[in-house]
Amino acid sequence: MKKSTYSSRSFRKILLPGLVAVVLVAVGYFAVVSTIPVNSTHPVFGAPSNHYIKVIDSKNGPIFVTTSTKGAKKNIEPTYKPIIHARVGELISLHIINEDHDKHNLNLDEFNVHTNDIGYFGTQSITFVADKAGQFYFHCTLHPEMTGSITIE
Fold it and tell me: Quick check: 16 pLDDT over 90?
C-alpha cells in the first residue's frame, strides 16, 4: 500500500512540472508565430506603423477612409480614397473597421494582404512588411469601386 502512495506522489511531482513546461512551450510558440507578418516567413520584432481604415456609407455608396497614428503625429481627419505612405522595410498594421451595414473586405494582392468578409461593426487587423517600392492599390472584392493606395518609397 505504501509503495503505490509513493509512486502516486512521484507521478504528481513529475506530472505538474511537465504540464507547466508544455503550457509554457505552447504559449511561447504562439507568441513567436503571432509576430510573423502575412508576407514573411520569419518573425519581425518591432513596433508597426498603425493605419486605421474604416468603411463608411457615403452619398455615393460605401467608401474606405483612413486615420493614422504613424509616429508622434496623429492624423484624426478622415481621408477619402486613402493614400498610405511607407518606407521599404517598414512593418505596417492595417486595422479595418466596418461601419457600413454591408459586408466588406480589403485586399492588397502584392503583399498577400487579404481580410475576411467583415460584417457590420466587425474588425480585423493584418500586419505585413512593405518589402517592395512602388504604388499599390487595395480594394474590396465585394465592392470594386472601393479603393485606396499605398505608396512605398
Answer: no
Average pLDDT over residues 7-33: 82
Please provide the distance, in angstroms rounded to a whole number, between the alpha carbons at the two ends of the chain: 75
pLDDT at 74: 53
Question: Comparing 4-8, 9-13, 88-92, 137-141, which segment has the lowest mean pLDDT?
Answer: 4-8
In angstroms, the CA 5 to CA 12 distance is 11
Instruction: Please report the pLDDT score of residue 140 as a whole number.
Output: 95
Listed as own residue / partner, the contacts of 114-123 with beta carbons closer than 8 Å and 24 or more positions apart are 117/142, 118/55, 121/97, 122/97, 122/98, 123/95, 123/96, 123/97, 123/98
C-alpha distance from residue 139 to each of 22, 24, 55, 144 (Å): 42, 40, 11, 6
**For the chain, how big is the Rg over CA atoms in Å?**
23
Burial class (CB in 10 A: 0-12, 13-18, 19+), 93: middle
Question: CA 56, CA 79: separation in Å to the nearest integer?
Answer: 12
